Amino acid sequence: MAVAMKSCALAREPLYVQVCELLIRQIADGAWKPNAALPNEMELAREMGVSAGTVRKALEKLETDRLVVRRQGRGTFVVDQAAPEAASRFDRLRRSDGEPLTWSSRLLDHGGGEPTPSEQRMLQIGPGDRVLEVGCGRGLGASSVLRRDPARVCGIDLMPEQVARSREANTDPRLTFEQGSAAAIPFRDGSFNRLLSVEAAQHFEDIPGFARESHRVLEPGGRFALATFFAADEHAAPELARLLDSFATGLDLAHPIGGVQEGLRAAGFTDIAATSIGEHVWRHFDRWLAQTEYRDSWGRSWIPLVERGLVDYYLLTACKSAV
Q1: pTM for this one?
Q2: Element (H, E) at 110
């Protein structure tokens, strides 16, 4: 399975990032199935025409992104994202005896709608646009973009099972889904002119990397839009973790809004704006929560934390210079 490095889309990225990208594509294309062993470092280095050290650094990043696991004396294996132990990395809750807390989940409701006039002005998605959604989940958001008649919409997600579900649920030929990391987006430079990410960036471990990759895959003049919740500053993290289980377990990360803006700026974006849209989110969310079996859960702590100014929901927009 020889792979030519010259075919890599990230020619201006560090070599180990290029190797990461190629390996992610191979995994996404099914070259190595879940739990399958990858070739050893020397074999991969020989096939890709790079050093074993470069391959080792790439594998370390893939392990950090939880796409592979390296087992002492046995080799490197593709993580089965559907396995219970893979899901448990997002949940470190324990019973009083120290055993993992057994849990299950189910979809209670979902819905969609046309963007508001202000959102339409900010996103500016229209006929002929090429749109990428980063952290697409089940593909509901990406599919809703089709209402605005773009030429192409692609969603990427780190989890293979989410990509599989999205592909199964959406058959429009303009809509595709790929596995990929927010910090190593599997597309060529300038592939899109619009990039979106909705309630996903709170999970991204490498916000500066996400910003750099977003800037890279946008064409000159492209527009970027990101919506999710962020911490007010770096001092908010302990209190968020104390009152919200999603932060305590590491599922959500307390990225300060100022740091996210700085990451976009350092990546080369201009016209960066952060708008609080919490008034359209928090009360509705809390009202819904009050009608479910979770009415007495930690989720009711969001509103007090918002009122204390420790966290809020934001819409961030930015542009890639046309020059």
Answers
A1: 0.66
A2: none
